From TrEMBL:
Name used for this protein in its record: Oxidoreductase/SDR, dehydrogenase
Gene Ontology cellular-component terms listed: membrane
A matching Pfam family: adh_short
Gene3D superfamilies according to UniProt: NAD(P)-binding Rossmann-like Domain
Family of this protein: Belongs to the short-chain dehydrogenases/reductases (SDR) family.
Top-level taxon of origin: Bacteria
Keywords in alphabetical order: Oxidoreductase
Molecular function as annotated in GO: oxidoreductase activity
Taxonomic classification: Bacteria, Pseudomonadati, Pseudomonadota, Alphaproteobacteria, Acetobacterales
Length: 274
């Protein structure tokens, strides 16, 4: 296509910002969403400098009505690519007097609201719109990509709700894609390790296999253009995590709880993030 319309959530920083800048070009229409308006405006300005027609919307992905309205407005004359990049992360608090560690109820609910419901608030309206679109010259009605995580393939004691939310998103995308592709709608789940973005900047532990945002964006765009159902990087980390999740739970936990990422208090609490 000489022109295409792309919608990106979480576009004010990290992977969303990287995708916007990489896709910006003459003939491309970008719809960028995020909560930080000044940063969103800066990204939009950089995209316009590269020739892309760019519109921004400051909104929270947890508001289903606002998301549906925005996506509907963006889909004129059509919606070709959607990237759901908005997300938050966090872990269990410091141990209590029993040596036990928990996530606060507020953090668990926020994690599911953003990482799962926020993704669905992006995916479902986009699917509805794409189903009504004519196929393009390649037989496509559209493509939707969601950022999941290597955390979605493990049951990691250090960050339970993040693992659960990302697992749900990944399974939904991979399973739904089996039939949606027959309609020319291709779904992609990105199971990545640590990416050097502001979201991980506050982590208090070493991050094995840390990937630059630029490298992550290249892998994601290559996978989406190849209609891959699941994009994985770094491969060794995801395969190792798959293997660990097949072990007896107690044996896996023995390893996990001895890792820096599995220690209570290693993640920056959500209420300390900007």
């Amino acid at each position: 296509m000489s022109s295409r319309t792309v919608l990106i959530t979480g576009a004010s920083s990290g992977i969303g910002r990287g995708l916007a800048l990489s896709l910006a070009a003459p003939g491309v229409v970008l719809h960028l969403g995020g909560r930080d308006l000044p940063r969103l405006e800066a990204v939009a300005s950089a995209c316009r400098a590269k020739g892309a027609a760019t519109e921004i919307r400051a909104l929270d992905v947890t508001c289903a009505e606002a998301m549906a309205a925005w996506i509907g407005e963006a889909a004129h004359p059509r919606l070709d690519r959607v990237f759901a990049c908005a997300g938050v992360t966090g872990g269990v608090d410091a141990p209590d007097t029993d040596g036990a560690a928990f996530e606060s109820a507020a953090q668990v609910r926020r994690m599911f609201a953003v990482d799962l419901d926020g993704a669905l608030n992006t995916i479902l309206p986009a699917l509805d719109i794409m189903r009504r679109q004519p196929r393009d010259g390649r037989g496509d009605r559209g493509r939707i990509c969601v950022i999941a995580s290597v955390a979605g393939v493990v049951s990691y004691p250090g960050t339970p709700s993040y693992c659960a939310a990302k697992a749900a998103v990944d399974r939904f995308m991979v399973a739904s894609g089996a039939y949606s592709r027959r309609a020319g709608i291709h779904l992609t789940s990105v199971c990545c390790g640590f990416v050097d973005t502001p979201m991980v900047a506050g982590h208090r532990f070493p991050m094995p296999g840390l990937v630059s945002t630029e490298a992550a964006v290249r892998s994601i765009l290559r996978g989406v253009e190849r209609r891959k159902r699941r994009v994985v990087f770094p491969l060794w980390l995801v395969l190792g995590s798959r293997f660990m999740d097949m072990l007896p739970i107690r044996l896996a936990e023995l390893y996990y709880t001895r890792q820096p990422t599995g220690r209570p208090g290693a993640f920056t609490p959500l209420d300390e993030r900007s």
